[in-house]
Amino acid sequence: MTISQVRAVCPHDCPDTCALLVTVEDGVATAVRGDPEHPTTAGVLCTKVSRYTERTYHQDRLLYPMKRVGKKGEGKFARISWDEALDTIAARLTSAAAHDPQSVLPYSYAGTMGLVQGESMAARFFNKFGASLLDRTICAAAGGVGYKYTLGARIGTDIEQFQNSKLILIWGGNPIASNLHFWMRAQEAKRRGATLIAIDPYRSLTAEKCHQHIALLPGTDAALALGMMHVLIAEDLLDHDYIARHTLGFEQLKQRVSEWTPERTATTCGLAVEQVLQLARLYGESAQRGEPVAIRLNYGMQRVRGGGMAVRNIACLPALIGAWRHAAGGIQLSLSDSFPKNHAALQRPDLLPTATPRTINMSTIGDDLLRDASPEFGPKIDTVIVYNSNPVAVAPESPKVAQGFAREDLFTVVLEHFQTDTADYADIVLPATTQLEHVDIHSTYGHLYMMANNAAIAPLGEAKPNTEIFRLLAARMGYDEACFKESDDQIAAQAFDRRDQKAVHFDWDSLKQKGWQKLNLPDAPFADGGFPTPSGKCEFYCARMQDDGLDPLPTYIAPYESVASNPALAKQYPLAMISPPARNFLNSSFVNVQSLRDTEGEPHLDMHPQDAAARGISAGDRARIYNRRGAFSAKVRVTDKARPGLVVGLSVWWKKLATDGKNANEVTGQRLTDMGGGPTFYDVLVQVEKLN
Ligand SMILES: Nc1nc2c(c(=O)[nH]1)N[C@H]1C(S)=C(S)[C@@H](COP(=O)(O)OP(=O)(O)OC[C@H]3O[C@@H](n4cnc5c(=O)[nH]c(N)nc54)[C@H](O)[C@@H]3O)O[C@H]1N2
Ligand SMILES: Nc1nc2c(c(=O)[nH]1)N[C@H]1C(S)=C(S)[C@@H](COP(=O)(O)OP(=O)(O)OC[C@H]3O[C@@H](n4cnc5c(=O)[nH]c(N)nc54)[C@H](O)[C@@H]3O)O[C@H]1N2
Ligand code: SF4
Ligand SMILES: [Mo]
């Protein structure tokens, strides 16, 4: 028997991007472990990926190309050859090109975060074809834009510093579930005497284990940050030297936040005045004592109308108190701009037609699939090619998404590992390889290591990497540019711009051998200012926001749907609903892995005892959750983890594996965030009734 250890990378959309060691025995992957030497992985994987072989060798893996033989959505398919599959797709694309290539839409997100199996060959292909462009907004768009207005780029505090912080605000995130290796650092900080505070409407697994939990109303984080700034300025808990040298617009900020008294803040956020005062004082006074103070900002608060502004406001806080002076101070939302990714080489935008194709926002796929041709919209979407995503389960307002994908005149191709809710609507399903079966290179958004993924095993069945599928399609379409013949290793070798010697100091071959390599960056990114904004400063006043039609100063934008902002709607649908990630799933990935689904049980709805009693609902009852957009059902857990007026349905379930064939996205809406065109998954009012 030959046994080997292969260095790999967890490909999932998770900030931790763990270094994996895959044990291969006679060509079969038998175990996946966390690399003990990788500083952030530290030999630990989450429960999902420690069972990775269960997913890879799952009996339901798609192993052959298939064509649909039943109705759309029914899930009846018959095996076909690769030649038949590719010829059928190429014929469809050729006729679409003759009519209008923009009638073809690629739809992809972060099923794999790999730079090769994500947007490399696929992007080249669609650029050359002239397909509609896809704005990939579904996760991080609002917060990313808001953060960049204030700080210039998605750069921040290194995860490896957090154990030295004395105060950590875990703001809109549940790291025990979704950022485990950050939580390990926060635990270490706690052992060293740090205070941990969770800011979250829900008492999540993480909030439960923090010293304090501030349970504000969903979508009111921007107001809390304004109120904190008010107190910091009123009580002079400031770093005047840092403000003078490294910030822009302090006087205007001071005037603006003067309106945000602790009383107004408390009312807006549904908190006690004392909570606002105490939080701001703790934050400011720790810094005054010279202690490192850090914020782990996450995406929970940005899935609402004012999500971009919330992130923009919170990003102002560290500069006010001079927290950036310490390597263990500051803020981390995403570190992704730390990596000098070479998009031009990977994606080849130079192949685009001279008239840039229209852009479709992935968060409004429901409406857009149902739209007719018009001068404003352009051609009707006639062909969708889905890879690395499961829109029928994850996109907002699922009833419309499903209706769109059910269109008889729509031709849908899905590249997948499994027969997902989306694959059920495909005309052709193509089997894709998993991370154990292909090569890739990764940047991350939660740490600062470049990561190499070696193929551990041969592709299962007739599965092919995404890259190979687009290479074969390019050949069928007669594309003869050299970039369509590059191997995955050749693509990986171009992923980072090695002219950026400051950051990148390795080559692909050595990275593949070693598995990972830290970027060469300073420990404290903004200790001496140097923000990558136009002014070089942290912009309390941001002229770019004004240019973009936004308030140039921090402000509060209320949710579309809340009791305070929309009382008429709240009469019918009085409960706010959020649907954050379940610990044992990763978005909709892993829902079909039996052991993980068994741990989650079935779709639940957490509801406060008062709200349950008012509806005659007891623990364990099934309930119907509904609004104008749709309805789904779940088993109720009566718990004060949800604050009164809030219900929580951990997500994202495969619809077909839920009791009623539906999930939380039946009731979420397609209205977009203030910035970045992001979705508003957590900006939802519903009513709940007991099901008999
Ligand atoms: N196990 C697991 N891990 C994951 C994922 C997964 O599905 N499962 N998904 C991955 C992906 S794609 C992403 S984007 C990240 C997401 O990572 P995070 O954004 O950290 O997501 P969560 O961990 O669910 O944390 C969101 C928290 O925000 C809270 N929240 C909701 N609304 C608000 C609000 O208005 N204000 C505040 N302050 N808090 C609010 C929720 O109650 C929840 O506890 O996680 C990644 N990691
Ligand atoms: N209600 C609600 N909805 C949400 C969220 C929420 O919190 N609440 N979270 C949102 C967020 S943050 C995100 S990021 C999105 C995520 O949405 P998606 O990016 O669509 O994530 P997944 O649901 O995990 O689907 C990824 C799919 O890609 C497939 N895949 C993985 N690797 C490969 C590969 O190499 N090749 C191919 N062809 N396929 C592959 C997987 O099998 C999986 O089915 O969902 C969003 N939807
Ligand atoms: S999902 Fe996240 S925590 Fe789990 S192995 Fe992957 S990167 Fe690590
Ligand atoms: Mo996400």
UniProtKB/TrEMBL annotation:
Span of domain 4Fe-4S Mo/W bis-MGD-type: 3-60
Pfam families: Molybdop_Fe4S4, Molybdopterin, Molydop_binding
Cofactor(s), by name: Mo-bis(molybdopterin guanine dinucleotide)
Gene3D superfamilies per the UniProt record, alphabetical: 2.40.40.20, 3.40.50.740, ADC-like domains, Dimethylsulfoxide Reductase, domain 2, Formate dehydrogenase/DMSO reductase
Keyword list, A-Z: Iron, Iron-sulfur, Metal-binding, Molybdenum, Oxidoreductase
InterPro entries: Asp_de-COase-like_dom_sf, MoPterin_dinucl-bd_dom, Mopterin_OxRdtase, Mopterin_OxRdtase_4Fe-4S_dom, Mopterin_OxRdtase_prok_CS, Prok_Mopterin_Oxidored, YoaE_C
Stated family: Belongs to the prokaryotic molybdopterin-containing oxidoreductase family.
Protein name per Swiss-Prot or TrEMBL: Molybdopterin-dependent oxidoreductase
Native species: Undibacterium arcticum
